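Hi R.,

As promised on Friday, here is the backbone we talked about, encoded as structure tokens. Could you run it through your design pipeline when you get a chance and send me back a sequence?
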């Protein structure tokens, strides 16, 4: 049995348009002796959208996911800052409001035969690496040091009390500490905890694109040659819409953007060809 076991909640983006996140998660889990236990049949966390139409449905679905993890005696691990923030909010509401918890549990027992008791924890990969695995352990596993300036992007949803582990809500340091351990130079920039406007991209595209451009250009102006995102949802804005954000804003947005799990996995020796490709992108785009 692996030394570290978690009920794994990849998030919809990881299961759909960003399968590279799952590949990286598999690689780093193997190297760091982590077992990612599937949450079979777990639903979407709501992604900040579902609650706008039906919050009670969202909290019931997340309570079901929590109860599934509790049934296995495991904490929930996700690589997505949006999932982490959204699910942590619902977890805290359920644990703080006994009447709500009992109402939701009546539904869970009737439909799924399980209950939520509040014994598990929501954990983002970043917090697991620092608080559970330990940066000292991660350091011993580094095979390919990330030898260039990296801007860590946290993702605004998880920068709130109860969702960011033992890190500082307003001035987090975990990502920067991890980057240094992986051999990189951590870039300190104001946009690292700011929103890039997802899911506002669906309704207010220009505003979201300007927010996205502000984060990227800020990181680049501070010397970043690559950005690593702890949020696959935000990565859609930062990477897929990067060129469009630059056109709308007039700012310099030409910067490679990868996922946090990729940065870790490649530094630990998983998929050297992808790391070589990243270094080529850095040389072409990062200056």
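Update: got your reply. Pasting your designed sequence below so it's all in one thread:
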């Amino acid at each position: 049995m692996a030394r570290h076991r978690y009920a794994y909640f990849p998030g919809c983006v990881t299961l759909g348009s960003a399968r590279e996140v799952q590949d990286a998660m598999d690689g780093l889990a193997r190297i760091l002796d982590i077992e990612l236990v599937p949450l079979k049949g777990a639903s979407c966390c709501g992604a900040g959208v579902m609650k706008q139409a039906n919050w009670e449905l969202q909290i019931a679905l997340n309570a079901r996911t929590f109860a599934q993890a509790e049934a296995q005696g495991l904490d929930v691990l996700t690589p997505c800052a949006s999932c982490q923030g959204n699910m942590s909010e619902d977890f805290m509401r359920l644990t703080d409001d006994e009447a709500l918890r009992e109402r939701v549990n009546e539904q869970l027992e009737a439909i799924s035969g399980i209950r939520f008791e509040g014994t598990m924890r929501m954990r983002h990969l970043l917090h697991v690496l620092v608080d559970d695995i330990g940066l000292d352990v991660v350091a011993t596993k580094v095979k390919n040091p990330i030898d260039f300036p990296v801007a860590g992007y946290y993702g605004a949803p998880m920068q709130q009390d109860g969702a960011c582990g033992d890190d500082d809500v307003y001035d987090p340091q975990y990502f920067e500490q991890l980057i240094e351990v992986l051999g990189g130079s951590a870039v300190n920039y104001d946009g690292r905890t700011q929103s890039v406007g997802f899911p506002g991209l669906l309704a207010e595209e220009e505003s979201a694109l300007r927010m996205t451009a502000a984060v990227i250009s800020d990181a680049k102006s501070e010397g970043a040659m690559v950005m690593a995102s702890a949020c696959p949802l935000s990565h859609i804005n930062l990477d897929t819409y990067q060129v469009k954000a630059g056109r709308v804003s007039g700012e310099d947005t030409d910067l490679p953007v990868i996922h946090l799990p990729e940065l870790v996995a490649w530094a630990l020796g998983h998929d050297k060809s992808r790391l070589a490709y990243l270094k080529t992108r850095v040389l072409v785009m990062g200056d």
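One thing I noticed while checking it: The mean pLDDT is 93.

Thanks again,
M.
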